[in-house]
């Protein structure tokens, strides 16, 4: 999303932390302050000058002053494009750094996933244009030696090995692929395990001296068939687009234990709600549990309910939606 930068007081006028320390080198900051003065300050000075002339009915016209102000303003516009181009080039290439985080498969064969709040740091800048689970929101906090960014997502997928695996994928941009890879490598992120409990940080850290270049942390938890994960409600803002056999939304997956089957993640024994996207009615609900299947919806202005036995039920889920073949009760 677009990044809007507000400016306020160093010597009465300064650039906020997230611009001075995160995006720009010291010489770029100086260059930008001069640019802002020329582009904004020169017109303001000229407006004040013209207002004073009108107020005191001064008719003398100094053409040299007018042409000088115009030339300085044009220089400011050119400098603005130059600094934007210089900083923009540092986002030109992207690279990915992948590593495995060692975790131990618990005796219970179920991992409990929870989120640890990173806490408040010295300064904070917040940007949001929607739901954080869709990567449209992140929070940047500044510390003495680090920057803290809330841009971490977790996905749960099927694993091929005998135990749980956790893969961390750092993505970043840079002026070239080498810089982008270096930026990705230097991202700091931690996960703690206490037996069956896996605790994730909500943020990653960028060490001092590394600029923000669109870094992002993607976590992949690989779950073998037959093993399970419990999604604590605290991880709702961390998980993103986890595929499951019932097409349950991320927000509705939390608070349940999900078992990996050959078909994918399944909440065995749970009563989950599936909202049909392909039906014109927003009031259709399908509840699947150990007792069977219950379909509730709107049919010609009245409620239509269908109850189906759990025996001999054929359920097909594909891109066209969900299809259930079974005899009615």
Describe this structure in words.
The structure is a single chain. This protein is of the alpha+beta class. The chain is 22% helix and 36% strand. It contains 5 helices and 20 strands. The chain has helices at residues 17-20, 26-55, 63-89, 177-185, 250-253; strands spanning 93-101, 110-116, 123-128, 137-142, 146-149, 152-159, 165-174, 191-194, 197-201, 204-207, 216-224, 228-231, 256-261, 264-266, 272-275, 285-289, 292-299, 302-309, 314-318, 321-325. Strand 13 and strand 14 (264-266) form a beta hairpin. Helix 2 packs antiparallel against helix 3 (63-89). The longest helix is centred in the first third of the chain and has 30 residues, at 26-55. The radius of gyration is 28 Å and the shape is elongated.
């Amino acid at each position: 999303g677009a990044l809007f930068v507000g400016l306020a007081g160093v010597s009465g006028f300064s650039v906020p932390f997230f611009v001075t320390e995160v995006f720009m080198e010291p010489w770029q900051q100086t260059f930008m302050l001069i640019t802002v003065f020329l582009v904004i300050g020169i017109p303001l000075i000229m407006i004040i000058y013209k207002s004073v002339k009108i107020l005191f009915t001064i008719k003398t016209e100094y053409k040299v002053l007018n042409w000088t102000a115009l030339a300085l303003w044009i220089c400011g516009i050119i400098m603005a494009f130059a600094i934007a181009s210089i900083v923009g080039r540092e986002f030109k290439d992207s690279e990915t750094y992948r590593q495995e985080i060692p975790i131990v498969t618990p005796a219970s064969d179920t991992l409990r996933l929870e989120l640890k709040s990173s806490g408040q740091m010295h300064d904070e800048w917040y940007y949001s244009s929607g739901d954080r689970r869709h990567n449209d929101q992140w929070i940047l906090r500044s510390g003495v030696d680090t920057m803290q960014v809330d841009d971490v997502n977790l996905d749960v997928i099927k694993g091929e090995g005998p135990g749980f695996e956790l893969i961390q994928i750092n993505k970043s941009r840079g002026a070239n692929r080498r810089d982008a890879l270096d930026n990705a490598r230097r991202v700091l992120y931690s996960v703690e395990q206490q037996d069956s409990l896996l605790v994730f940080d909500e943020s990653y850290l960028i060490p001092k001296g590394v600029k923000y270049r669109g870094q992002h942390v993607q976590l992949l938890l690989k779950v073998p068939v037959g093993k399970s994960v419990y999604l604590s409600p605290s991880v709702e803002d961390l998980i993103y687009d986890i595929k499951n056999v019932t097409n349950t939304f991320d927000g509705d997956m939390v608070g349940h234990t999900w078992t990996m089957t050959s078909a994918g993640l399944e909440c065995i024994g749970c009563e989950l709600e599936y909202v049909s996207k392909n039906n014109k009615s927003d009031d259709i609900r399908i509840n699947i549990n150990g007792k069977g299947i219950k379909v509730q919806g709107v049919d010609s202005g009245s409620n239509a309910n269908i109850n189906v036995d759990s025996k001999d039920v054929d359920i097909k889920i594909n891109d066209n939606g969900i299809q259930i073949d079974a005899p009615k009760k």
